[in-house]
Task: structure prediction
Amino acid sequence: MRRIIGIDNGVSGAITILDSGRTTHCLMPVKKCLDYTKKKNWLNRVDVHAVKKLLSKDSNEASLAVIERPMVNPARWKATMSAIRCLEATLIILEDLQIPYRFIDSKEWQKVMLPSGLHKEELKEASCQVAKRIFPTLEFKKEGADSLLIAEYAKKNLS
Result:
């Protein structure tokens, strides 16, 4: 089996690595930084060094990173900019480590991994409950469930 890396893109996302029966999972490592605008504001950025360290562990096996395509919506400018900044940092890390990657739409993995008929506000809770069934001994926060399901979907359908 090749090493599968499921990435729920964004500063509130997570990373899951499925590697020969071992699961490594964490929320996206971020660091709090002063915003680049003139107005006092703080923002979260991907902690590139922490992510690189996480992904380079045991990287001698063939890997595939599967990244959820970021939300891009001009009506949600700040969230879109954050998602794109995070994606760019993640891509630079993957390319630097020479880890191949592909993008996946949330609807693609959700269609297979979650029950049908869920509404937008129900998706996070359903994702958490399904991930707990698949990974019953793993402790994780609700925000991290999507990367677990992305990785599991990729292991079964893309490798």
Remarks:
- The mean pLDDT is 90.
- The helical segments are 48-56, 77-96, 106-113, 120-134, 145-157.
- The CA atoms of residues 80 and 114 lie 25 Å apart.
